[in-house]
């Protein structure tokens, strides 16, 4: 699915992003499942608070990482589209 | 560094 720039993505009901101090990583807790985002995916999901728009999330990430904004934009959209298709986030 | 975001079911 295509996510518009003004969408305000947030984790779906039952999904929770939690810091796992034992693994020293973020984990995504879901009913009956534990999902490990890699560091970049965790940075994206931490910003999906339902308040920030997709464009704002990409802007923020582009300010934090040295990668081209186009690359960040494409990767964020790909991840969130995939997660929305699996009903892991709402947009 | 920016890398492709990925999720792994653990």
Automatic annotation (TrEMBL), chain A:
Signal peptide: none annotated. One of its GO terms (biological process) is pyrroloquinoline quinone biosynthetic process. This is PqqA binding protein. The lineage of its organism: Bacteria, Pseudomonadati, Pseudomonadota, Alphaproteobacteria, Hyphomicrobiales. One of its GO terms (molecular function) is quinone binding. Monomer. Interacts with PqqE. The keyword Transmembrane does not apply. HAMAP family: PQQ_syn_PqqD. Belongs to the PqqD family. Functions as a PqqA binding protein and presents PqqA to PqqE, in the pyrroloquinoline quinone (PQQ) biosynthetic pathway. Pathway: Cofactor biosynthesis; pyrroloquinoline quinone biosynthesis. It holds the Pfam family PqqD. The keyword Ribonucleoprotein does not apply. Keywords: PQQ biosynthesis.
């Amino acid at each position: 699915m295509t996510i518009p720039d003004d969408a305000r993505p947030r984790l779906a009901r039952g999904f929770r992003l939690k810091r796992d101090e034992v693994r020293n990583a973020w984990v995504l807790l879901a009913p009956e499942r534990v999902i490990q985002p890699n560091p970049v995916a965790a940075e994206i999901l931490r910003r999906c608070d339902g308040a920030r728009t997709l464009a704002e999330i990409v802007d923020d990430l582009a300010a934090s990482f040295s990668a081209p904004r186009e690359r960040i934009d494409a990767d964020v959209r790909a991840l969130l589209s995939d997660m929305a298709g699996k009903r892991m986030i709402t947009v | 560094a920016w890398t492709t975001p990925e999720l792994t079911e653990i």
